[in-house]
Design brief:
This protein is 76% helix and 5% strand. It has 220 residues and is mostly helical. Helix 5 packs antiparallel against helix 6. The protein binds zinc ion. Zinc ion binds next to helix 4 and helix 6.
Amino acid sequence: MLYLLLIVVTLGLGLGTQALINAQYRKWDKVYSHAGLTGAEAARRMLDSHGLYDVPISITTGKLSDNFDPRRNCLNLSQSVYGSYSVASIAIACHEAGHAVQHNLGYTPIKVRTAIFPVVNFASNAWIVVLLIGIAMNLMDMVWVAVGLYALVVLFQLVTLPVELNASNRAMTYISDSLAMSVDQEKGARSVLTAAALTYVAAALASLLQLLYLVARAEN
Ligand SMILES: [Zn+2]
């Protein structure tokens, strides 16, 4: 019963925040920004204003697949963001540029995130296998190892929150100070980034609830 409730809450949070980001993106992707720049041009200017002339920007496939790659120190913008003049595209492109700035300034949460990523990548695949073996063989120690591995995944999602919020703050500071957008368009850019941040909050909350459930079950 409790598990059913957990699934409903998790699904509701996930779908609700996904619907919100899609709606905000659709709305502000139709609005041509007064800055008169494409997403790629805005990101380039923001990077250059921080002295990051050597961080390249390339196009990647997929919708809302924009990201900063810390290993290659490069920005990957989706096709629709790269060449679009919309408010949404500029917000997203500058958010990714914000991650590049964090990386190159040595912002602590992004360093922690990058450092624990390989372990978390392993843990996120391994925890369920370890849990199932532990349950099947009735080995409580293994169940607790699985809970520990899952806790690492939750930790990663929690560290992601300040990283994402800070990248959005950097983007909004740059947009307000350096791009000629109207107040209304700035609000639009902020709405897109806030909706995106909420998807991370929902994901972290869902995995935290799942962890609490696992701990409660393991103790009984
Ligand atoms: Zn981000």
